What we know:
Elements: H1 2-18, H2 23-47, H3 49-67, H4 71-78, H5 81-127, H6 136-161, H7 165-186
Amino acid sequence: MRHVLSWGLWVLVSVFFSGCVSQGAAETALNAAQNAVDGIRSAAKVSVPEQLASLDSAIAAAKQKLATSDYSAAVSAVKGMSDKAAEVASSAATKAKELTAVFAHLSESVPKMLDAIKSKVDEVGKTKNLPTGMDRAKWTEIQNGYSEAMKWWADAGDAFRTGDLVRGVSIGTAARNQVTGLVLSLEIKP
């Protein structure tokens, strides 16, 4: 009888506690989730910020549940966060490879076009003869566009070297578009 009673008590206690999560357990789960996200934050924030924001939202929701003593919901909100963080880290690495490839392509084409434009600018500067069909206003526009493209290209390189891959590619693409227009206006082949 005593054995049946202790077994029955054990069943009641386990049923009662199976749906309950302690504050300590919820805090531990939340801290583990926060650490997992913080571990991938620097890589994710520059290449997949929207995915990082999703993880941060889940953690914020868990913190809110924890603050209202809904410990089970707090744990549920961060359940599987380590796996999700690993997926985001993988996405960030893939995106970084893609951006690196794009920047490598830009690094091959933009400097060549800039050199070709510089040669033309230097040539016109020496001869003082504007290209056929071009007036002084258009020539000034081209010189200003060249200066702007040089600045953009330098900014793109700086951004890329400091790890801001998205910004580096974005500015580099703008520089490429600018120099492409200049090359076409000058009718030169880089």
